[in-house]
Amino acid sequence: MNTTPLPETTSVVIVGAGPAGLTAAITLADAGVDFVLLDRLAEGANTSRAAVVHARTLEVLRELDIADELVDRGIVVPRFTLHDGARTLATIDFDQLPTQYPYTLMTPQDTTEAVLLARLRKAGGDVHRPYRVTRIADENNSVTVEYLDGADNAGTIRAEYVIGADGMHSIVREQAGIGFTGETYPESFILADVRMTWPIARNEVALHLSPEGVTVVAPLPDAEEPNRYRVVATLDEAPEHPTATDIQAILDARGPGGDVKVGEVLWSSRFRVHHRVADHYRAGRILLAGDAAHVHSPAGGQGMNTGIQDAATLGPLLARVLAGEPDTLLDTYETTRRPVALGVVAFTDRMTRMATLRPRPARLLRNAAMSLLTRIPAVRNRLAFRLAELANR
């Protein structure tokens, strides 16, 4: 925990030290920009949560000298497969993608954040914790940021700009008066990391469709035992903390059959999924990145990736403006990144609605269409390109 007293003024305040906030801070530190990075939590992520890092994100992180370490600490997965029970409907391979990283990398979010934080500290920056922002006001050609520290002592920082990377319930977005348009899916989702025996190879992410809901199983890196997996599944009403019995029942009902045995739940949670995009990414001197700007279905593992790419775009733009270029340069951030978020939300929404079809005729039609279309190489390659977010270059 960084207990260094906060300055009264700085060039940029970043609120939120998740992957997007850390990425923005690294780009500013590399550019020699003075900033303060605040986070309300006393420590960083210690659970896996987002676990997918796509090719485009690895390309972005390569520019920050981070990608190689992440690859070393993750597990390379070169394909996604789509199943209905024991039947494989489609296989999407990434190995022909035009990138140095022709795969998906599975690595827990706490690992990703640890690598980002180490890189930030190497650049001379750090996170100040725990600081809860209570008010933000764009006034008098600067932004006033009011906060409470861990002992509830109040303080104020004045900054030229503020980046809100503080998640779906962003205080920065709320204080800036920016709308967050969208809806909530009716189903609840469970997220769990488990140790289990699983009959599908550890070089693929498996998406299982069934009348009961959609289930995704993906391998996670484990230096001790190669049997750690991420399970994501939709349920009408999920338990708050799913147990091994809960996960076993889901996989028995929806999985491929064969030898599936859940031995231990390492971590689990329940959540509701929204699909929303901020009406604007900028309000004067206040800007948004990551989940503060967009949230969507976990289908395809796009969320954290899009947020990191937001920050990697915003940080250098902000550094250029602070170095003397016109403030209007920041308008290009919204015009380039918001359409990307809208596209991701639409894409993941289609995937989610397709995967959670209930009526039998609709499911049969879906299965037939998926099986037929993905036999066409151009279709498979386009899906892989889109999932890898290479269209966002």
Helix content: 25-40%
**Which sheet architecture does the biggest sheet show?**
8 strands, mixed
Low-confidence stretches: none
Instruction: Give the count of structural domains.
Output: 2
Q: Proportion of β residues? A: 25-35%
**N-to-C order of helices and strands:** EHEEHHEEEEHEEEHEEEEHEEEEHHHH
Which CATH architecture of the largest domain?
A: 3-Layer(bba) Sandwich
- Could you give the order of strands across the largest sheet? 6-5-12-13-14-11-15-18
**Cα-atom Rg, whole angstroms?**
21 Å
- CATH class of the largest domain, named Alpha Beta
Question: What does it look like?
Answer:
With 393 residues, the protein is an alpha+beta fold. The chain has 2 domains: 9-50 and 108-179 and 279-353, FAD/NAD(P)-binding domain, CATH 3.50.50.60; 183-274, D-Amino Acid Oxidase, subunit A, domain 2 (D-Amino Acid Oxidase, Chain A, domain 2, 2-Layer Sandwich), CATH 3.30.9.10. Helix content is 33%, strand content 31%. It contains 10 helices and 18 strands. The strands form 3 sheets. It has an 8-stranded mixed β-sheet with strand order 6-5-12-13-14-11-15-18. Strand 12 (204-210) and strand 13 form a beta hairpin. The protein is globular.
